[in-house]
Amino acid sequence: MRIDGRAFRTIWLGADGASVEVIDQRALPHRFALRTLRDAGDAAAAIADMTVRGAPLIGAAGAYGLALAMAADPSDANLSTAHGALLVARPTAVNLRWALDRMRARLAPLKAGERRGAAFAEAVRIADEDAGTCERLGEHGAALIAEAWERNGRSRPVDVLTHCNAGWLAAVDWGTALAPIYKAHRAGVPVHVWVDETRPRNQGASLTAYELLGEGVPHTVVVDNVGGHLMQHGRVDLCIVGTDRTTRTGDVCNKVGTYLKALAAHDNGVPFYVALPSSTVDWRVSDGVREIPIEERSADEVTFVSGETASGAIETVRVVPRGSAVSNYAFDVTPARLVTGLITERGVCAASEAGLLSLFPGEEGD
Ligand code: MRU
C-alpha cells in the first residue's frame, strides 16, 4: 500500500540479502522510520517491543527471524533454539507459531549447508502468500460492503466500524479487516469508517487512521466506548474487525474491546464480521475464552499517554494518579455466537467448526 505516494510492504529482505527491513510502527503516525533486523534476536525484539505488530505480520517477522538465525548458524541446535526464542516473543497471535512451524518443517530435513538459502526463500514465500491471501479475503469482504450499499439503496456511504489496526500495517500488505474496505473503495463503493482509537496503544487512532488517510478513505476517529451509541442510532452498517487467533469453533481473540463491540452489534442487529487469513486459525483450540492466553502488557501503557505537541515534539504524560493499581489486558475473546461471519481467503463462512471446515476441509487439529 502507499505512504506519501510510494508503495510499501511492512517487511522485506534487505538489499544485502542478509538483513530484513521493517517499518517501525512505534514511530507512526508522527514519523515514518525503518528498522533493520540483522539477527534473530533483532527479530524477536522487534516483535516483543511492537516495532512490528498485528498477527499476520508477526508471523512473517518470525519467519524472517528464523531465516536470519539460519544465516548465522544453520545447525539443528540453532534451528531449535531460534524457533523457541522467537515463539515466545508474543503469546497471542497464532500466526507466529504457524510460520515458525512451517519454517522448521521446511528446514529440518535439509543439510545444514542448504538451510540459509532455503530459509530466506521460505520466509519470502510466507510474506508473498500473506499479501495474496489478504488481497483475496479483501475481495470477499468487499462484496459484503457492496451488498450493504445496495441495502441502503445506494443512498449514502456504507458506515463500517473497526477496532484496533487490522490494516496493511498489521499484515504484509492489504491487511485483514481493512482489505475489504480498500477493495470496496477502489471499486467505487462509497465507504466511511468509524475508527475506534483503541486504548491503550491507540493502534486505531495512530495506525488505522494513518492508513486510511494514505488511501483516501473517508473515516472518523472515535473514542472506544462510542460504538454502542453509534449502533443504537443506525450509524453503523457493519462491523469488520481482525483477529489474532480464531478457534476451530469460530471464537475470536482480538484486541481488547472487540467483545464489547460484538455485544453492542448483537443487541442492535448490526452484522459483525471478522476478517482473517487461515493462518490465524488455531485448529488445536476449541474454547477461546478458556484456552487462549491473554497477553498482559506493561501498566505503563495505561498510566502514560504519548503524543505530538503543537510544536511537533513527542511527549509522554501520566494520566493515572500515582498509587492507583493498573492492569493491562491486551486482548479479549468474542464467542462465535456473536460473530455473523468469518471473511477468509476462500470466502465467507459461519463462525463455527462446520463453517470453517466447509472452506478448509481436512483441518482436524492436532
Ligand atoms: O497488539 P497488537 O497491535 O499486535 O494487536 C494485534 C492487532 O493488530 C489487532 O488485534 C488486530 O485487530 C488483529 S491482527 C490483524
Automatic annotation (TrEMBL):
Swiss-Prot/TrEMBL site (Transition state stabilizer) positions: C164
Catalytic reactions of this protein: 5-(methylsulfanyl)-alpha-D-ribose 1-phosphate = 5-(methylsulfanyl)-D-ribulose 1-phosphate; 5-deoxy-alpha-D-ribose 1-phosphate = 5-deoxy-D-ribulose 1-phosphate
Keywords from the UniProt entry: Amino-acid biosynthesis, Isomerase, Methionine biosynthesis
Active site: D244
Organism domain of life: Bacteria
Pathway entry: Amino-acid biosynthesis; L-methionine biosynthesis via salvage pathway; L-methionine from S-methyl-5-thio-alpha-D-ribose 1-phosphate: step 1/6
Keyword Amino-acid biosynthesis found: yes
Entry keyword Isomerase: yes
Pfam families: IF-2B
Enzyme category, top tier: isomerase
GO molecular function: S-methyl-5-thioribose-1-phosphate isomerase activity
GO biological process, any: L-methionine salvage from methylthioadenosine
InterPro entries reported in the protein's UniProt record: IF-2B-related, IF-M1Pi, IF_2B-like_C, Initiation_fac_2B_a/b/d, M1Pi_N, NagB/RpiA_transferase-like
UniProt-annotated binding residues for substrate: R53, G54, A55, R90, Q203, N254, K255
Enzyme Commission code: 5.3.1.23
TM region positions: none
Family designation: Belongs to the EIF-2B alpha/beta/delta subunits family. MtnA subfamily.
Function: Catalyzes the interconversion of methylthioribose-1-phosphate (MTR-1-P) into methylthioribulose-1-phosphate (MTRu-1-P). Also catalyzes the interconversion of 5-deoxyribose 1-phosphate and 5-deoxyribulose 1-phosphate. Part of a bifunctional DHAP-shunt salvage pathway for SAM by-products.
Name assigned to this protein: Methylthioribose-1-phosphate isomerase
Biological source species: Lichenibacterium minor
Gene from which the chain derives: mtnA
